[in-house]
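thought: user wants a sequence for this fold. calling inverse folding tool.
action: design(structure=
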């Protein structure tokens, strides 16, 4: 039977997924609920959904198969656990949770039942990560001993508005959300390409000096005054991962905020804000066109040398390296986002629910993308002391 999905949280981000799940041939009905009833009603009309629910409890009591959580980031863990315990499959926006205990409970619930959990981490499908995962898996870079992942998103580029939209008159209390508790756009890109996980971390937090009531301990719900944080992780394979989470940074919003670098014994891939290169001991090559996503016309000559079969991907906002052949034809030309990831996220969740198999960013993988940030937050609050990173193991085969 086709899947019935209830979207929880009719905010500024969920609409993309409402559109895609409405288009998906294996989804029969999409519903929505929000604490602000008018927002749910607007979604109902705008996306031609099947209906609304009064609240989250009504969703859990309904016959929907799956719950897609797009609520405030510190609520995800508790809501995901409640949905799983109610017998629902769960798609959760990032982060998975902000407490280790919540993550352990989610993993235990998934392990003990037959429900699907998927975290919607965009960086797993990031073109640079997609490319690196294939090259590293094929052994073409040798031993990758050092990797970097950054998420550079300045507060002035949309975050003020997002917190104001969700937080009401007391929005500054939550706008101080600790950067390392939102780690997956950086960590997930590195660990989405490497077959390993973090074991310990030392993190330094930079105290904010804007003096606008955000990242102010006297106001913050999280007792946080760090706006920028940098972490150094030890990995289980003996390698090193460095990630940055920056919220006060002179960086434009129209270029990718997540970027990645992988240093191997045989090759190096380095991505910057406006390009990417592959090098070995004898050469360096510009591979930027492989990672670029376009919605609409491709500039003449830009894709010279790229496989003709991949050029069609640009009409749906994906990059040549992202393989669209596995997506439903109904997604062609549909709005996309986060460097081509939305189509793959929406489809992978539906396929996982329909097949009863764990998706790529399942509960165990999501834990490995999220727990490093929780440990980094603890390290930064204690002057950068090295902290062990909890690991909950591999997903079942």
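)
observation: tool returned 397 residues.
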């Amino acid at each position: 039977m086709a899947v019935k999905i209830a979207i929880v949280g009719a905010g500024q981000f969920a609409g993309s997924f409402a559109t895609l799940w409405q288009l998906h041939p294996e989804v029969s009905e999409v519903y929505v609920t929000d604490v602000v009833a008018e927002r749910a009603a607007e979604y109902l009309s705008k996306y031609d959904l099947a209906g609304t629910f009064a609240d989250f409890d009504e969703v859990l009591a309904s016959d929907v198969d799956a719950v897609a959580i797009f609520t405030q980031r510190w609520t995800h863990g508790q809501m995901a656990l409640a949905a799983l315990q109610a017998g629902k499959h769960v798609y959760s926006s990032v982060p998975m949770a902000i407490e280790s205990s919540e993550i352990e409970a989610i993993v235990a619930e998934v392990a003990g039942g037959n429900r699907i959990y998927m975290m919607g981490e965009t960086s797993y499908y990031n073109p640079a990560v997609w490319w690196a995962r294939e090259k590293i898996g094929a052994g073409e870079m040798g031993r990758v001993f050092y990797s970097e992942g950054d998420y550079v998103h300045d507060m002035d580029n949309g975050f003020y508005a997002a917190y104001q939209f969700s937080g009401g008159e007391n929005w500054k209390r939550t706008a101080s959300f600790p950067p390392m508790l939102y780690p997956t756009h950086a960590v997930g890109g590195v660990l989405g390409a490497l077959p390993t996980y973090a074991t310990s971390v030392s993190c330094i937090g930079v105290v904010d000096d804007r003096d606008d009531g955000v990242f102010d301990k006297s106001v913050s719900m999280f007792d946080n005054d760090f706006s920028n944080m940098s972490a150094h992780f030890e990995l289980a394979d003996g390698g090193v991962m460095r990630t940055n989470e920056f919220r006060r940074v002179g960086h434009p919003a129209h270029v990718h905020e997540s970027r990645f670098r992988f240093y191997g014994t045989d090759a190096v891939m380095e991505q910057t804000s406006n390009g990417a290169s592959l090098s070995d001991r004898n050469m360096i090559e510009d591979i930027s066109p492989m990672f670029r996503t376009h919605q609409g016309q491709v500039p003449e000559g830009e894709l010279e040398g790229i496989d003709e079969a991949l050029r069609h991907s640009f009409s749906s906002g994906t990059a040549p390296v992202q393989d669209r052949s596995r997506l439903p034809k109904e997604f062609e030309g549909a709005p996309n986002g986060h460097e081509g990831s939305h189509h793959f996220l929406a489809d992978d969740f539906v396929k996982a629910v329909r097949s009863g198999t764990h998706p790529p960013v399942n509960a165990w993988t999501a834990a490995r993308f999220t727990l490093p940030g929780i440990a980094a937050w603890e390290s930064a609050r204690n002057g950068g002391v090295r902290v062990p990173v909890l690991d909950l193991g591999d997903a079942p085969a």
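thought: summarizing for user.
answer: Here is the designed sequence. The longest strand covers residues 198-207.
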